[in-house]
Amino acid sequence: MNFSTTALNVLLLIAMAVPGYLLIKTKLLPEKAITYLSVLLLYVSQPFLSIRSFLEVSYTPQLAVNLAIMFAVSLAGQALVFFVAWLVLRRRFDDTEQSAALIRDGYIDGDTLTREPALSAAVARSVKGRANRATVLACAFGNVGFFGVPVLQFLFPDAHDAIAYSAVFIVTLNLMSWTVGSYILTGDKKHVSLKRALINPQTVTLVISLPLFFGGVSSADLPDTINSVIGYLADMTAPLCMIILGMRFALAPLVKLFSDVRVYVSSLVKTLVFPLVIYLVLMPFEMEEMLRVSLVLLSGMPGATINLNLAELYGADRTTAANSILMSTLISMITIPVIMLLFP
After folding, report:
1. Max CA-CA distance within the chain?
2. Is residue 11 a part of any domain in this protein?
3. CA–CA distance from 242 to each of 165, 325, 333, 343 (Å)?
4. Structural domain for 302, as ranges
5. Total domain count, the chain
6. Is 255 part of any domain?
7. Cα separations (Å) of 71 from 64, 84, 267?
8. pTM here?
9. How far apart are the first and last CA of the chain?
10. Is residue 220 situated within a structural domain?
11. 106 φψ region: left (φ > 0), alpha (ψ -120 to 50), beta (else)
């Protein structure tokens, strides 16, 4: 695909983040509004977008096979990148018990200060170790739902099968993040949650959509009023995604965003190395072009919002998680058009 055409589409998409940025900067909306809008996106607009996509594609054995391929390759790809990042950084992780004590005493994410050399060194090791844990997730888990879906909508507005593929990719993302992702971030197996990995809006959406898909039910079989309601709710996805992204940018401390080498490295791995690996792995295999494009493009999405959600949930390194999302989103404005040059 033409570089300038792709770049223009990505820029137009990013431009939709400006209202969110301004709403926070002018204090017309409080920071907590991000949570409310995210709930609306996660539980309403994205599920309806996925349902509409499955209603707009006709069942064929090949499409069913493609969905299975998407599941297998996306899961294997994330697992591979995650494992390599873990292998490289695991010796630089913090001691979770020591970090918990330092957090409790206010030396990490608190106001307590010390000039004692040994304690200062321990704090520095813990801070870096917590950042390395967050970096592993930032390398492997991409913003498939909140950024990948709008990108696919903009680049391929009539390719409903691509949105269906993204729904499957999101399921594998959840499987990875709520299990090995939670474990690496906390260092504690008790936080591995198969329940959350399997029971979430994306998985429930597939449970609803797949029987309709395999049963041959399409939008033509539904009343126009129902199709209209589904369409209106689905069409909110791209604007909501971008508005939330703009709000997050408005809250980002820019000095920390551009001063952490880990953030640059994880962003480049996520947005460039990961998709190139998937592209090279898929080269020998014959498959439908939209499936190939979707796999490669979705693999190159910026850092996943769930990385930050998990960090907030478990009291892990929120700064590295947030900065990795924002930096990789900025870098993706260049890498997405570059990746699309791989396809005619």
Report:
1. 72
2. no
3. 21, 13, 13, 26
4. 37-235+261-340
5. 1
6. no
7. 11, 20, 23
8. 0.89
9. 5
10. yes
11. left
pLDDT tens by residue, the chain, 344 residues: 567 778 888 888 888 889 999 999 999 999 889 889 988 988 899 899 889 988 988 888 999 999 999 999 999 999 999 999 999 999 999 998 898 888 888 888 777 777 788 888 888 899 999 999 999 999 999 999 888 888 888 888 888 899 899 999 999 999 999 999 999 999 988 888 888 888 888 888 988 998 988 888 988 899 999 999 999 999 998 888 889 888 888 887 777 677 789 999 999 999 999 999 999 999 999 999 999 999 999 999 999 888 988 888 888 888 898 889 989 998 998 999 999 999 97
Token pair 């390398």 in the structure block, residue: 139
Distance CA 232, CA 239 (A): 12
Residue 2 forms part of a structural domain: no
Question: Residues 263, 257: contact at Cβ < 8 Å?
Answer: yes
The answer to whether the beta carbons of residues 302 and 270 sit under 8 Å apart is: yes
Token pair belonging to 41:
């996106």
Let me know: does 294 contact 311? Beta carbons within 8 Å.
Answer: no
Distance (Å, rounded) from C-alpha 49 to C-alpha 244?
17
158: Cβ–Cβ under 8 A, 6 or more apart, which residues? none
